[in-house]
Each structure stands twice: as C-alpha cells, then as structure tokens.
Amino acid sequence: MWLLFTVASLISALGTTHGFFGKLHPENPEVTMNVSQMISYWGYPSEEHEVVTKDGYILEVYRIPHGKKNPESRGQRPVVFLQHGFIASATNWIANLPNNSLGFLLADAGYDVWLGNSRGNTWAKRNIYYSPESAEFWAFSFDEMAKYDLPATIDFILKKTGQEKLHYVGHSQGTTIGFIAFSTNATLAKRIEVFHALAPIVSLKHTKSPIKKLALIPPFLFKVIFGNTAFFPHHYFDNFVGKEMCSHEIVNALCSNALFIICGFDHKNLNTSRFDVYLAHNPAGTSVQNAFHWIQVYKSGKFKAFDWGSPVQNMMHYNQPTPPNYNLADMKVPVAVWNGGKDWLAETQDVDLLLSKLPNVIYHKEIPFYNHLDFVWAIDAPQEVYNEIISMIEKDKN
Question: Which residues pair with 336 in a beta bridge?
C-alpha cells in the first residue's frame, strides 16, 4: 500500500492530462459495480441473499443459478460453493472475463454456483448486535469463520436449493476455514461432496512472504499500530489506484509489484487490462485479530485456535489454558489439492506437510510456475485448474 500511495502522490503532483504516464487503457465498467452488478453485466442471472450467523453477522451471498447457454434446463443442478481467501471477497471468482473466471465457467458448465463472503469484508460488515464501529464487531479470526460463517452459509444454500450436498472450492484462507469446519463439525462434513483446495494454507512455517515481518512486531505494539478493528479495509483510495493509475502502461509494473508483494510474482500470466478491477475490489478487509491469528500460526508453527493472550482468557473461550490444536486427521471429506511452486504463502514444503496429514486426498497437482493469486486471476487458470475441477465434478455427478 505504501508503494501505491507513493505512486498516487506522484501522479497527483505531475498530473495525468498530458499523458505523462503513457497510453491510458479503457476503464473496465466493473470498477464501480457491486457483486450482483458484475455478474449481470456479463449477461448471467444473479441472486443476492443474506445469511445470518448464530453470532449475528450478516453475510451477503451471491448466486449464479445457471449459465447464459443453459437457461432452458429445468430441475436441480449440482451446487458449487466458492469461498475466497484472506482480505478478499466474492469478486475474486468473477473478476476476469467469463471465459477466464471460475464462477462463470461453472455456471456455463451447468452448475448452481454460490459465492460466499467472510465476516468483516466489504460485503459482510453488518451484525445484528454490534456496530462495525465497535471493537466487539471485530473480535473474530478465521476460527469464527469456520465455526459460524461456513455452517450458516452451507445450511442456507442447501435449504434454498433442496440439495443434500455441495462441492466446496476454497482459495487460501477459504481452504483454512474449510479444514477447520470439516474436521470439527461432523454433521457439516457429511454435506460436502468434495473439497477442492486451491493454494491451501494451514501453516506458514516456510513462507517466503514479507508478511512474516509483521511477526517481529511485539503484540502490544501491533495493536498500537493497527488498532483493534479493521485490517486492510477497502477504501475509495484503492478504487482510485485501480482506475486512475494502473491503467497507465508505465505504472502497470509498479501496481503489479504492490499487488503481489506478499504473494509471489507471475507477471506473464496476468491480464494487466484487468488491474483496475482487481484493485477496485481488493483488499476487501478483515479484522486485525484475524491478521494477528495468522502471525500466531507463523510463530508457533502449529495449526491451532486463536490465543487470547492469557490462560484465563483461553479458559473462558476453550475451557483450557491454551488454544486447542486442529487435528487434520479428523478431516474425512475427500480433498483435491492444487498448489503453486512459486507461491510465497502456501509454500510447497508446508503444502507437502498438509498432504501428509490428510486421510482422504483424492487428487494433487503442483503447478511449478504458479503464485498465490494465479489460482483466481491467471490467464491460463482454466487450462491449469478450472477445467480439472469441472471435469472432476462432472464425473462425480455421473
């Protein structure tokens, strides 16, 4: 963000009217759209629903009930639920062109597609008990996403569609909460046909990402710097960066460096004409507590619940003085895994360790040149990942 701020200041000082920064690409209209509008813009049917969790969070969930080519088909369709990663949102699955976005490709392949949002992001900032201005609203991490958000959303989807099971596709933190939820909630696990895990993360022990530098900050100072509410929330500044800056050819490289600095680089596999869309909707935000939980995962090397900071506090939450570990051996749901060889977050050694602990891995593919965000935005994602997911679901259907 500091790099983006520097570039924004430079553009503001020099001005854009004289074409100083090169040719301006046409602005993509999705920059100013919400999720439903982005879906409808490409001619797909769109539904918007609200899911209320047991602890009062209101999550906006979106549905693409069918594709453009198969609206005449009647009856139930297999359901696929897509869950985004850390500081991201449902827009990740529809940010590219229809032939390059998993949400649209699944709809055109004949599936009932649902896009989830985790509490605290742009589209999930409401609670029936707490205001988003309060610290209480933000007192959550991926623990609560797994305990409350996923069960509530999956229950809502299956009731709405009349189906007994669905296919779950998670990216990054979307896999993390899946591993927790499906290993700790046996009833929920029975409702998952297959768990498709893209760039899965349960450990950051071998991460190469500069994000690990945050672990050097003492806990008390971390809260002084970042506060105790929102972490990387979406602001209009991000929209400005995407719309006014990243469409200029000369600053494309600067924008990509800032966008991928924590995830790894793959410039050749990115559609730079979509930068304004990516940055207009990302980062979508989460809680500071969630970010701090990831720091705890890195420092401890263990996949465990949030440490509230004292034995007394932990006793209040877990009835034990230390946070419980999550046991991946209890994750009986069939899992298909895709990871990248150049992923700085879901690093290969950490993924290999994860695979060794899972009892029901039905498929694994490592893409040597993929980074963390290639799984949602890469030009060749259909060829490397999405077509395989669709084929796998099709075989399961038959």
Answer: 196, 363
Nearest to 198 by CA among 318, 371, 73: 371
Q: How far apart are CA 120 and CA 143, in angstroms?
A: 13
As a whole number of angstroms, the distance between CA 160 and CA 103 comes to 19
CB under 8 Å to 265, separation ≥6 — which residues?
256, 257, 342, 371
- 280-324 pLDDT, tens per residue? 888 899 999 999 999 999 999 999 999 999 999 999 999 999 999
In 3D space, the residue among 376, 3, 354 whose CA is nearest the CA of residue 202 turns out to be 354
Closest CA to 273 of 67, 93, 24: 24
Q: How far apart are CA 349 and CA 152, in angstroms?
A: 33
pLDDT tens profile 83-127 = 999 999 999 999 999 999 999 999 999 999 999 999 999 999 999
Instruction: List all residues 6 or more positions away from 216 whose beta carbon is below 8 Å from its beta carbon.
Output: none
At a CB cut-off of 8 Å and minimum separation 6, what does 22 contact?
A: 248, 249, 250, 251
What is the C-alpha to C-alpha distance for residues 253 and 272, in angstroms, rounded to an integer?
9
C-beta of residue 287 within 8 angstroms of C-beta of residue 140: yes
Q: Tokens 């854009």 appear where?
A: 16
Percent of the chain surpassing pLDDT 70: 83
Strands 112-115 and 166-171: unpaired
For residue range 7-49, what is the model confidence (pLDDT) as tens digits?
333 333 333 333 333 444 558 999 999 999 999 999 999 999 9
Greatest Cα pair distance, the chain, in angstroms, is 65
Residue at token pair 């040149």 = 369
- DSSP 8-state class, residue 325: B
Residue-by-residue DSSP string for 212-246: GGGGGS-HHHHHHHH-SSEES---HHHHHIIIIIT
What does the radius of gyration of the chain's CA atoms come to, in whole angstroms? 20
Q: Which helix (H) or strand (E) holds 363?
A: strand 361-367
Q: Which residues pair with 59 in a beta bridge?
A: 51
CA distance 197 to 307: 26
Residues identified as active-site? 172, 343, 372
For residue 136, count other CB atoms closer than 10 A to its CB. 13
Q: Residue 379, SS3?
A: coil
What is the C-alpha separation between 31 and 161, in angstroms, rounded? 31
3 state DSSP class of 64: strand
Beta bridge partners of 236: none
